[in-house]
Design a protein that fits this description.
β4, α4 and β5 form a beta-alpha-beta unit. It is built from five helices and seven strands. The longest helix is centred in the middle third of the chain and has 15 residues. The protein has a seven-stranded mixed sheet, with helices on both faces. It is globular. Helices cover 27% and strands 32% of the residues. By secondary structure, it is an alpha+beta fold. It has one domain: Aminopeptidase, CATH 3.40.630.
Length: 172
């Protein structure tokens, strides 16, 4: 079951986060800023994963995103903080979380985008299987990761939402 993240979810989510990724300030990283919504998923009654949808932050509204989609930066919704407990991976939970966040973006008339570490992990392949395409690459300075990070900039490959400008400038 996917549901909105609640304050009481933070501590158990930090325990899951410890098993998959440990940023310098995990609570701040998890909660983030500019959050439009955050959701959790349960499996067999236990909290098992998380995803958040945020506005494109001024310093990280990569021009490649809005150029690839032909939309203004304020029409972007960034998928962030996706993680699933290692013991229940490959069970469709991440897909359910992402689908929920994508529906929320669509309901707001926003286009899903994200950045993902370009470290050869399975993360980029997961997003590409979901229809996301590469719009470019960027380098993040050392921050929560504790080191500089090269990221792939991905945009949803699905058709733009009704009323959105098409890449040619025509309205769909």
């Amino acid at each position: 079951m996917v549901r909105p993240r609640a304050e009481q979810d933070i501590r158990p989510l930090l325990a899951i986060l410890r098993a998959v990724h440990w940023p310098n300030d995990p609570a701040r990283w998890l909660v983030g800023t500019g959050t439009l919504g955050a959701w959790v998923v349960h499996r067999e009654g236990a909290l098992a994963g998380h995803v958040a949808l945020t506005a494109a932050a001024a310093g990280r509204a990569w021009p490649e995103w809005h150029q690839a989609l032909g939309v203004a930066p304020e029409r972007l919704a960034v998928l962030r903080r996706l993680f699933v407990h290692p013991d229940v991976r490959r069970g469709g939970l991440a897909t359910r979380l992402v689908a929920h966040a994508e529906r929320e973006a669509a309901a707001r008339g926003l286009h899903p985008v994200l950045d993902v570490a370009a470290d050869g992990s399975d993360a980029a392949a997961f997003w590409e299987r979901r229809g996301y395409r590469r719009a470019g690459e960027a380098r993040l300075p050392a921050g929560d990761e504790g080191r500089a990070l090269r990221v792939l900039l991905l945009v949803s490959g699905r058709a733009p939402y009704p009323g959105s400008p098409a890449p040619s400038g025509q309205t769909l």
